[in-house]
Protein: Putative N-acetylmannosamine-6-phosphate 2-epimerase
Amino acid sequence: MNKLIEQLRHRLVVSCQAYPGEPMRSPDTMRRVALAAAQGGAAGIRAQGLADIAAIRQAVDLPLIGLWKDGDDDVFITPTLEHALSVARAGAHVVALDGTARPRPDCRTLRDTITAVHELTGALVMADCSTLAEGIAAAAAGADLVGTTLSGYTAYTSKQPGPDLDLVARLSTAIDVPVVAEGRIHTPAHAAQALRAGAWTVVVGTAITHPTTITGWFTSAMADAR
Structure:
């Protein structure tokens, strides 16, 4: 087992992401959020965008999962090999990319993309999947980690109010590659349940690093109470 992956075993990865138009949208802000997560005990960071990845890599001495969201197609999480290579060269230890069965914009196969990332950069690859079949295929294609990230975010999967723990459990028994539980993990209880379901590591983003959404949860609950 790769030492970096071993560092994440049964521990928390915090996703530090903000998008254009949001108050926290700047690489320096995300760097500070990542530092705060590290102080809180995070074992790894997940970050989006080349500038954010570079800033966080310089500031935080933790395994860094990087991605680049780009384009309007169905496949927009590190959609091409060039995106993946850029993410690795920006400083990501692990390149997260779309691991679904959907066609990639550059027409490369998932296997070809993963192989090229390994050979050209030495970085590891995390495949963000939405179904059991996709996770199995991604593992067979050489992914070092398989995530449940896109469950509920593809046209052919149903979005649940919480994490897809069933997919976590099924993947953990179907593949030898470590399974990353990610997506709608909103409470510490959800994170613990994901570990019990067989997750190697758990990624939490919104519930820790997106104050606009967290505030909305509170205001909505209070409005219902009124």
Summary: The first helix runs from residue 3 to 7. The chain is about 45% helix and 15% strand. Residues 187 and 207 are 7 Å apart (CA to CA).
